[in-house]
Amino acid sequence: MNENGSISYLTLDLILSGCRSLKEKRSILSPMISRLRKEFNVSVAEIGFQDKWDQARLGCGVVSNDGKYNQKVLAEILNYVTAHFLDVEVDEFHIESR
Prior knowledge:
- The chain is of the alpha+beta class.
- The protein has one domain: TT1725-like (Alpha-Beta Plaits), CATH 3.30.70.
- Helix content is 38%, strand content 36%.
- A 4-stranded antiparallel sheet has the order 2-3-1-4, with helices on one face.
């Protein structure tokens, strides 16, 4: 355990097959972001590919005094996204801690 706390983040590169507009993209991402915030008590934002209809990059951040806990939460988020959002494909992901 680190006395100063631990900050960890997950970046998810997503493929949104079949999206034909930014409005359609938002209709998929907005509920996803809301559910992740509620289910995991983390910060979530779209951080990339804002101008692409069929791609998105989400960033999820968690802060606690236990880096292992942070890693566990972020791994659970990755599993949750792949299990609950079937119209979204995780193309790439990265988990980092500081």
